[in-house]
Amino acid sequence: MRKPIIAGNWKMFKLKGDALAFVEAVKNNVPAADKADSIVCAPFVFLDALVEATKGTNLGVAAQNMHFEEEGAFTGEIAPRMLADLGVNAVVIGHSERREMFNETDETVNKKVHAAFKHNLLPIVCVGESLEVRENGTTNDVVDAQTVKALAGLTAEQVAGTVIAYEPIWAIGTGKTATSEQANETCGYIRSVVAREYGQATADAVRIQYGGSVKPDNVVELMAQSDIDGALVGGASLDSESFLALLDAVK
Ligand SMILES: O=C[C@H](O)COP(=O)(O)O
């Protein structure tokens, strides 16, 4: 039985006061730790305050990106050890917005996943196809290659402890959700890739989220699918009541 994981990705929204007000409203109403993982993925500048504000609660805090190097002359970048030092729990790696707009590649994604494990950060690794790929019928090939490259060099145990977020790019922020069958089919395919590369026990353990226009009114159906273990949610995670409604699906 895989523990569900719901992560709200705030992207580049909110000011610090809004972020703190959000966690005050949410932090004591999230599911019990043995039921589900509940996480907010916040801009770097709020992470310190949010880690402090959520201490002793079941609400986890994630970064939305990081560099893969330990330290160095990388102006404007954030090192994994800086996140670990703050007490951040998790990090989103390879979101399609970073792949499309900030030159993230399969190679840098893989380096970041290794760095996350080195610093005890839970990696939430994003894969997903464009509309063009979906329409030309090569979705499985694309997510297969992304998954293999992202996880290259990890042990089976590390893969089992990774979260993979399947996010079809055409469903992000568009209001177009993949049908629950489409989402489940591709999440199932990703699980079969993990089985092929790392064995069935690892595939049975790895958690796979769906992301793309998840809302309180479709989350229950999505979460009921056999291969969907959680959601990575953008727009509908910005409002505390909406986020709590998403969490109700896994309570
Ligand atoms: O990281 C979250 C995804 O990009 C989904 O965003 P969305 O829920 O606004 O479609």
Automatic annotation (TrEMBL):
Pfam families: TIM. GO terms for molecular function: triose-phosphate isomerase activity. GO terms for cellular component: cytosol. Substrate binds at residues 9-11, 173, 213, 234-235. Keywords: Cytoplasm, Gluconeogenesis, Glycolysis, Isomerase. It is found in: Cytoplasm. The keyword Cytoplasm applies. SUPFAM superfamilies: Triosephosphate isomerase (TIM). CDD domains: TIM (cd00311). It comes from the Bacteria. Pathway: Carbohydrate biosynthesis; gluconeogenesis; Carbohydrate degradation; glycolysis; D-glyceraldehyde 3-phosphate from glycerone phosphate: step 1/1. InterPro entries: Aldolase_TIM (IPR013785), TIM_sf (IPR035990), TrioseP_Isoase_bac/euk (IPR022896), Triosephosphate_isomerase (IPR000652), Triosephosphate_isomerase_AS (IPR020861). Its EC number is 5.3.1.1. The keyword Cytoplasm applies. The active site is at residues 95, 167. It catalyses: D-glyceraldehyde 3-phosphate = dihydroxyacetone phosphate. GO terms for biological process: gluconeogenesis; glyceraldehyde-3-phosphate biosynthetic process; glycerol catabolic process; glycolytic process. Its main location: cytoplasm. Homodimer. NCBIfam families: tim (TIGR00419). Belongs to the triosephosphate isomerase family. Involved in the gluconeogenesis. Catalyzes stereospecifically the conversion of dihydroxyacetone phosphate (DHAP) to D-glyceraldehyde-3-phosphate (G3P). This is Triosephosphate isomerase. It comes from Culicoidibacter larvae. The lineage of its organism: Bacteria, Bacillati, Bacillota, Culicoidibacteria, Culicoidibacterales. The gene is tpiA.
